[in-house]
Design goal:
heterodimer, A: 307 residues, alpha/beta, 10 helices, elongated, B: 92 residues, 4-stranded parallel β-sheet, globular
């Protein structure tokens, strides 16, 4: 099997003719080569592509972007699983085009720009070609500018050129991933006197008292255990744990000694199938609504897990 | 050495605290295909899952995987590993 490197190109356009000129041929070339081809676009864009491709469109899987792009963590896991399954089932490569969902807040837009940066590292080991489309008529200019930092290549017409504005993914994520929100919940201390087993019992009891739904509670239990595991094995141990309800959500805060993580991409990269270690923070991000990793006032690290 | 045809049934909580102990036991006694029944496992984390993986190239069959185990299998990219087979808990 050929191991073509990943490509990730940006296509910015402001009229339908330019879109129809660029996107369908990119997908058709994938169909021609026997690749798995997936379009994850706004409904209107999907229709434009379908019309332009004609019968070739039957070989393309169309997904509505608004259903796929629920939150960046989930989109990363979905893409990773889909790509691995296509390759396992014999596709020589996977070709994707994607279009971000419309967001209602700047924070959501920023998260998706960070996601675009993360893709470069998340799929670097797979033969995947991705073309991301940005309709300047619909997307805020700041988001298109952000996207210019995240794509190694620029698509234009029928040629691909390297992008002079491309930046290291870690620095983009560091800039764009939202910092933690202030919280004003009534958190209770969970006494940590007897190791991980009793920690999990106490967290389970706290979640039951707070009425956390079963599925969320199971996810939180594993996620908090992964953070504890990282703090103990790679840091200087755990200083304290506080947990409780904040509004409609449940928050678990774990403060740890040592700076056991300072990589902005920590937990955002899917584990490689042949990995023999790691993956705990990836799982923690997947099983919670949000994992926040912040410097703590005492010079260590504060992990906040939300379900 | 354990007969390769037999299944090992694990019970309790398998976490980062005991995962290396289990990995060492498996490494010492199971050199053929690994067949593990997880029906009685109340909790498992990533380090625990990795302890089940055995040595490179060793086949792993997981029986009675809970929804949580299934989720970890997918998140660790084991679902597309040809050497790993997962049979889920039958639900009525």
């Amino acid at each position: 099997m050929s191991a073509a490197p990943m490509s990730h190109e940006l296509f910015v356009y402001d009229d339908d003719a330019a879109f129809v000129d660029a996107m369908p041929p990119f997908l058709a070339a994938g169909v021609e080569a026997g690749e798995a081809v997936v379009a994850v676009l706004a409904s209107r864009s999907n229709e434009l592509v379908r019309d332009a491709l004609g019968s070739t469109g039957r070989e393309v899987t169309f997904i509505a972007a608004e259903n796929h792009y629920t939150r960046p963590e989930a989109a990363l896991a979905d893409y990773d699983a889909s790509v691995r399954r296509y390759l396992r089932d014999g596709a020589p490569a996977v070709r994707l085009c994607g279009e971000l969902p419309m967001c209602s807040t700047q924070q959501q837009w920023d998260e998706w720009v960070a996601y675009e940066a993360i893709l470069n590292r998340a799929f670097a080991h797979h033969p995947v070609s991705i073309m991301c489309v940005y309709d300047e008529r619909r997307m805020p200019a700041s988001v298109v500018d952000g996207a210019r930092r995240c794509h190694p290549d620029l698509a234009g017409g029928h040629a691909r050129a390297s992008n002079p504005d491309y930046e290291d993914p870690a620095s983009v994520v560091s800039d764009m991933w939202p910092s933690a929100a202030e919280s004003s919940g009534d958190l209770q201390e969970l006494v940590l006197d007897n190791g991980a087993v009793s920690f999990r019992e106490r967290l389970t009891a706290a979640m039951a008292r707070a009425g956390v739904a079963d599925g969320s509670a199971r996810g939180m239990l594993v996620a908090a255990d992964e953070v504890l595991s990282n703090a103990i094995r790679h840091g200087g141990g755990v200083q304290g744990v506080h947990a409780g309800r904040v509004g409609d959500e449940f928050l678990c805060e774990i403060s740890a000694d040592g700076r056991w993580h300072d990589d902005p991409l920590a937990g955002f990269l899917p584990p490689r199938p042949d990995a023999v270690a790691g993956g705990g923070l990836w799982v923690a991000r997947q099983l919670t609504r949000r994992l926040e990793l912040l410097p703590s006032p005492s010079g260590g690290l504060l992990a906040r897990l939300w379900v | 050495r354990v007969n390769p045809g037999s299944t090992l049934r694990l019970a309790g909580e398998l976490d980062f605290g005991c995962s290396q102990t289990l990995a060492a036991v498996l490494d010492a006694h199971y050199h053929g295909d690994l067949s593990l029944d997880l029906a009685d496992l109340r909790f498992v984390d990533v380090a625990g899952m990795r302890a089940l993986r055995g040595r490179k190239g060793q086949r792993l069959k997981i029986l009675a995987a809970s929804a949580g185990v299934r989720q970890l299998v997918d998140l660790l990219a084991w679902d597309t590993d040809p050497d790993i087979e997962v049979a889920e808990v039958m639900t009525a």
